[in-house]
Amino acid sequence: MRASRVTLIFTIALMAMSILAACGQTPAAPAAQAPAAAEQPTAAASGAVTKTYADMTLCFPQLGAESDWRTANTASFKETATTLGIKQLVFSDAQQKQENQISAVRACIQQGVDVIALPPVVEDGWEPVLTEAKNAGIPVIIVDRSVSADPSLYAAHIGSDMVLEGERAAEEFNKMFPDGGAILELSGTTGSGAAVGRAKGLRNKLNPNITILDTQTGNFTRAEAVPVMQAFLKKYKPGTDFQGIFIHNDDMGIGVIEALKAAGINPGDLKIVSVDGTRGGFQAMVDGWFQADVECNPLLGPQVMEMALKLMNGEPVDREVLTNETVYYPDKAAELLPTRQY
Ligand code: GYE
Description:
Blueprint: H1 3-24, E1 57-62, H2 68-84, E2 88-93, H3 98-111, E3 115-118, H4 127-135, E4 140-143, E5 156-159, H5 162-176, E6 181-187, H6 193-205, E7 210-217, H7 222-235, E8 244-247, H8 250-262, E9 271-276, H9 279-286, E10 292-295, H10 301-312, E11 320-322, E12 327-328, H11 330-336
Parallel strand pairs: 1-2, 1-3, 3-4, 4-5, 5-11, 6-7, 6-8, 8-9, 9-10
Antiparallel strand pairs: 10-12
């Protein structure tokens, strides 16, 4: 074969490969992909030894296992740790108790981990332990929910814009109730960044002719949402006293559906908006129970570990990294359900 033909065939093959690679990308994936092994930093020319994933001991004191979102979040960290080949992921489950999370952070400081990725169960009360981590020279990335502590006490925050999620939910009710109405709110864990932000966002954007009749916490769990909805139904008549429900996550949404059905109420007669976009939420849209599901992406492992490596190497990082999200509707739910990763 002549040299020019070989070059031509090679060029065509390369083009075909890049087209295939482009097609294979998932456009919706909001989490930044961690660099491939070949892109990992090597010893810098300056002589300073650059750390790699193989050097990384990352502490991840998970807040609990309260929801499908949380299960997917934990899986994302564990899978990413394995894929990148980090030295150790120090994982624990605080069972939604701040004191357990604080103890887990303290144990990690004691162990001398490289970085702590902390998903705080509630916003307040982190100053002492964040100060201890800072004094020990261990950078902390606040993951998922926010903290009220001074930003000088941690390196960065990676997570969703919870206020925006609440605002998105409000816009759905504004569209569904142009002539006004009343809604109930089932909120997440009291004092958590996710519940505080979603409640605030709802109030920011809800039209003045839509009232929030009552708000109670279901602690982000399916089990705790059931009695809350039962108590609501004792006090308020669906259709008459309220026409819609804003629910801070899909797990509680499923609990609400259960409670409504058990009381002989067709959930589809009400307008229900939930948050997360889990498979359970998509199924509820397919079944006609949810009218919209505001996405909250739990797949944060790659972004967090990429940032952790930068921190280990003293590289600058963005202090606030927000996940890019959307709203899902029943019309596309059946089509998208099989593609959902969580
Ligand atoms: O929406 C909920 C989980 O903090 C964003 O926590 C997270 C929330 C999520 O229990 O399902």
